[in-house]
Every structure is written in structure tokens, then in C-alpha cells.
Design a protein that fits this description.
The protein is of the alpha+beta class and 66 residues long. The chain has one domain. The chain contains two helices and four strands; from the N terminus they run H-E-E-E-E-H. It has a four-stranded antiparallel β-sheet with strand order 3-2-1-4. A hairpin with a 2-residue loop joins strand 1 (15-22) and strand 2 (25-29).
């Protein structure tokens, strides 16, 4: 994964878009093509949109960037 703390600030300024669902994970893609997963257990009652603000997903981008 290429999302690093160094470029995370830039990545979250752009929208993310839904890519696919597999094995309990919703995968989203950043504006520059990097993918990260959001566990279904973390969603709760939230609504996942096809395209959304990147800042809302910073928590999961940071986890995948390690």
C-alpha cells in the first residue's frame, strides 16, 4: 500500500469511490488508484455511498498505510 502518513493529508482532500466488497470488507479507491478496506463490523448503522469525502475514511486509510 502506498498510502503513507506523508501523503495521507493530500489523499484525504479528494473523494474516494467504492470499488468492491469481499470477505466482510468494503474496498474503496482513492483519487490516485490506491485501495483500502473498511471492515463491515466498523460500519454499524452508517450509510456507505458510492463516492464520498476522503476525510471520512482517514481512519481506515491510516490502518492500510502501515
Amino acid at each position: 500500500m502506498d498510502i503513507t502518513i506523508k501523503n495521507l493529508k493530500n489523499v484525504v482532500q479528494h473523494p474516494v469511490s467504492f470499488s468492491f466488497y469481499r470477505a466482510g470488507m468494503f474496498f474503496y479507491k482513492t483519487y490516485d488508484g490506491q485501495e483500502f478496506g473498511v471492515p463491515i463490523d466498523d460500519i454499524g448503522n452508517a450509510t456507505l455511498l458510492n463516492t464520498d469525502k476522503g476525510i471520512y475514511f482517514m481512519r481506515w486509510m491510516r490502518k492500510w498505510g502501515k
